Amino acid sequence: QVQLVESGGGLVQPGGSLRLSCAASGSIFAILTMGWFRQAPGKEREFVAAVSRTGSTTYAADSMKGRFTISRDNAKNTLYLQMNSLKPEDTAVYYCAASSTSLRLVVVTISDYDYWGQGTQVTVSS
User: Fold this and answer.
1) What mean pLDDT value characterizes the chain?
2) What are the φ and ψ backbone dihedral angles of 26, each rounded to 5 degrees?
3) pLDDT in tens, 56-79
4) What 3-state DSSP class applies to 6?
5) How many Å separate Cα 16 from the centre of its chain?
6) Could you tell me the CA-to-CA distances from 19 to 7, 31, 42, 56, 81 in Å, in that order?
7) 28-59, pLDDT tens digit by residue?
């Protein structure tokens, strides 16, 4: 069993930055493919970014490329999402997720993730 706990959300002005963290319990973090998703009010949960088990390969959704960076520290069992140049449309609950079964290097499909955190609210507003 894996437990994921996000932190780092909050209120930020447009153009600002935030860094989200996701702490994972258990000793299997290094073999999990990890990702970030977000869900805005009234919208479906959408893919943000994913990272491979070693952290050497990352992939971000087109609208986040160049602004959001995903990374992980396997020694600390922690996943990160650095968000820069934030826009009001980035307002959402952000979730970290772990895939223990996918064979893909990075995982972008919601259904391929089997562990989820509780989410952290990010609000971008002046």
Assistant:
1) 94
2) 90, 170
3) 999 999 999 999 999 999 999 999
4) strand
5) 18
6) 9, 23, 24, 19, 6
7) 887 899 999 999 999 999 999 999 999 999 99
Instruction: Extract the tokens encoding 63.
Output: 């609208």
What's the helix, strand, coil split of the chain in %, to 5?
10, 45, 45
The encoded tokens of residue 31 equal 């073999």
Round to whole Å and give the CA distance between 99 and 77: 14
Dihedral Cα 57, 60, 66, 70, nearest 10 deg: -60
Half-sphere exposure (Cβ direction) of 39: Cα atoms closer than 13 Å: 12
Residue pair 49/61 in contact by the 8 Å Cβ criterion: yes
* Residue with token string 């509780």: 118
CA distance 99 to 83: 22
